[in-house]
Design brief:
about 220 residues; alpha+beta; Muramoyl-pentapeptide Carboxypeptidase, domain 2; 5-stranded mixed beta sheet; two-stranded antiparallel ribbon; about 30% helix
Length: about 220
């Protein structure tokens, strides 16, 4: 089977899953789109460039809820977002840097787990499942940078998923070097159509996100 036919088959399967999950909403289920949406075409990032580094903490206990919510450490994005991210990764080589990716597409059911796990002002840092998130649409990515020479993550003003004002992309504290890395990431991502979240230096939304519906397709249903 050709790659084109394979991609169409995957897209069709995902479109059917989207219809099942979002156009016939169940009580406490994913929100339905209020406008026509594009067929999903989720692609696994490392199939486009295996030099992207992954640190999928939601597949481990090393995350803010202290348990794994993903069955495996894989990262997917809608194809236009994934291709733009690869361009960012390759552009950063001139600075001796590469992308370290924490998360991309997130099934809606995981968003609900996150929402139910926090309360009060901590909910400013997680998406309301009633609305769905840009991660659920496959158009948001959480990431940082790594040093190409050492292979090690660079130091940012905070660790990933810190739920404080220090995580804001305009936070003025931390070391000058950490702010420089944070700002280099922002400049490279912005150049390819991504916008940083106002409360999370690591979270970027791709410009096409309004064109996609909320998905609740598990990783196991996505082709390797």
């Amino acid at each position: 089977m050709s790659d084109t036919l394979t991609r169409r088959g995957v897209a069709l399967s995902l479109a059917l899953a989207t219809a099942a999950c979002t156009t016939v909403p169940q009580p406490d289920g994913p929100p339905a789109p209020d406008h026509p949406v594009r067929e999903p075409d989720l692609v696994e990032l490392v199939t486009l460039d295996p030099t992207l580094k992954l640190d999928v903490r939601y597949a481990t206990v090393n995350n803010f809820i202290g348990r794994a919510v993903y069955p495996e450490g894989r990262v997917f994005l809608q194809r236009p977002a994934a291709e733009a991210l690869v361009r960012v990764h390759r552009a950063l080589r001139s600075e001796g840097l590469g992308l370290l990716v924490y998360d991309g597409y997130r099934p809606w059911s995981v968003t609900k787990v996150f929402w139910d796990s926090v309360s009060g002002d901590k909910r400013n840092f997680v998406a309301d499942p009633k609305l769905g998130s840009r991660h659920n649409r496959g158009c948001a990515v959480d990431l940082s940078l790594y040093d190409l020479a050492s292979g090690q993550a660079v130091t940012m003003p905070t660790d990933y998923d810190e739920m404080t004002t220090r995580a804001y992309p305009d936070y003025g504290g931390g070391t000058p070097e950490s702010r420089r890395y944070r700002d280099s990431l922002r400049a490279a991502m912005t150049a390819e159509g991504f916008t940083v979240h106002p409360r999370e230096w690591w979270h970027y939304d791709f410009r096409d996100w309004p064109e996609y519906g909320v998905l609740d397709v598990p990783f196991g249903a996505l082709r390797r």
